[in-house]
Amino acid sequence: MNQILTEMDGIGEKKNVFFIGATNRPEILDEALLRPGRLDSLIYIPLPDLEARISIFKAVTRKTPCAKNVSMQQLARLTEGFSGADIAEICQVAAKAAVRESIEAEARYKSAQELQGDEEVEMDYDPVPELKRKHFEEALKCARRSVAGDDL
To answer: The whole model's pTM is what?
Structure first.
């Protein structure tokens, strides 16, 4: 705490320097941080609304192939009260489920090839998995909100 206060006070009269801090626990901020000239403005940023959650899902999955049956609107409706970080975690868990499924499918494919010998093995195997609705459903089962109602 002393180090950050020293750094803030050491800036002096520089006009183009701003200190911005973020916390989800404003009640435990040290009063010295809130003195005029330091972090003297507090801005409440609420949890994302429906449209913001849709945008977060789209942003987090923009480089990830998603199946056509994945509805970002439905996912956003199911995540009322979730933060952006919570939504990102859901997407990560879904991606891990897709990768795990792909690895298992590859192992089955290779086993079937070994059993068949030279014969061509026909299997529905895609080495690049896409996120399917079932992956998100699996992720939502263990999803949790990081901001409790009392904290709001």
So the answer is: 0.73
